[in-house]
Design a protein that fits this description.
The protein is mostly helical. It has one domain: MetI-like fold (Orthogonal Bundle). The chain is about 80% helix and about 0% strand. Helix 8 packs antiparallel against helix 11. The longest helix has about 35 residues. The chain is globular and about 75 Å long. The two termini are about 40 Å apart.
Length: about 280
């Protein structure tokens, strides 16, 4: 059946705000990409136009003169190791809470869920002194530990909902065949929760890559800066040296991996979140 006039008007009324919102979000990103290939003179002369010639000079300047290469490496270390450590801690915890109930397990799970509601800013000062006492202040591995622990409640919450839907008969059959609980966890449970694991890993990776405030508090030496801190430093320098092209280039370096990651795994993320919501 052909849609009625009212239905067409309704669809147009829904799409127009979405189109306007998309333009409002995408235009600054496009402007940033274009500006990264301009010289400072072009940025001031024609800030809204395309560059006369696409040059990678700003990227080279950011990579070498502002040590973006070191910051990218630090961010990669913190992000990758933090995401892996989160999974290593969260998968056994979620399995134990869901499949091996013990006295107080429900209270423990409630505690994890409650931790999701507590603003992270309340723990920054105690964490600062704790890392200082452990000689992990101004250390990217100390920051990695903080990142991993901060995302544990969310990761456990999502993985528990996935594990709860796996038939217990599979574990019982494996146990009858002589498989240990650790074997059941890593050879049966983990492969069957791949969708949830991928979802939380991608979301944690994006969170760690973009995080700024905890890195600002716990890192002090410029050689330990993550990419977010390096961009903030370039931004403060650009105000006095007019290095706007370099700032745009560093922003592009930071945002491209996130965009590529999301494009590759967008279906996985949507599928995992929907499945997690239904199963939870």
């Amino acid at each position: 059946m052909k849609p009625t006039v009212g239905e067409r008007i309704g669809r147009i009324g829904i799409r127009i705000p979405l189109v306007l919102w998309s333009i409002a979000v995408l235009y600054p990103i496009l402007w940033m990409f274009i500006g990264s290939f301009k010289s400072n003179a072009e940025i001031y002369r024609n800030p809204w136009g395309f560059p006369e010639s696409f040059s990678f000079e700003n990227f080279i300047h950011a990579w070498t003169n502002y040590n973006i290469n070191t910051s990218v490496f630090n961010s990669l270390i913190v992000t990758i190791l933090g995401a892996l450590l989160t999974l290593i801690l969260a998968i056994p915890t979620a399995y134990a809470i869901e499949r091996m109930p013990f006295r107080g397990s429900n209270y423990l799970f409630t505690l994890y869920i409650s931790a999701m509601m507590i603003p992270m800013v309340l723990g920054w000062i105690p964490l600062f002194f704790l890392l200082n006492n452990l000689n992990l202040l101004d250390n990217i591995f100390g920051l990695m530990l903080v990142y991993a622990v901060s995302q544990l409640p969310f990761t456990i919450f999502v993985l528990t909902s996935f594990i709860s839907t796996i038939p217990k008969s599979l574990e019982e059959s494996a146990a009858m065949d002589g498989m240990t609980p650790y074997g059941v966890l890593w050879k049966i449970i983990t492969p069957l929760t791949t969708s949830g694991i991928i979802t939380v890993t991608i979301m944690n990776t994006i969170q760690f890559w973009n995080e700024y405030f905890m890195a600002l508090i716990f890192l002090q030496s410029q050689e330990n800066y993550t990419l977010a801190l390096a961009i903030d430093y370039i931004s403060s320098e650009a105000e006095y040296t007019n290095a706007w092209g370099t700032l745009f280039a560093s922003l592009v370096i930071a945002i491209v991996p996130v965009i590529v990651l999301y494009i590759i795994f967008q279906r996985r993320i949507a599928k995992g979140m929907v499945e997690g919501a239904i199963k939870g």
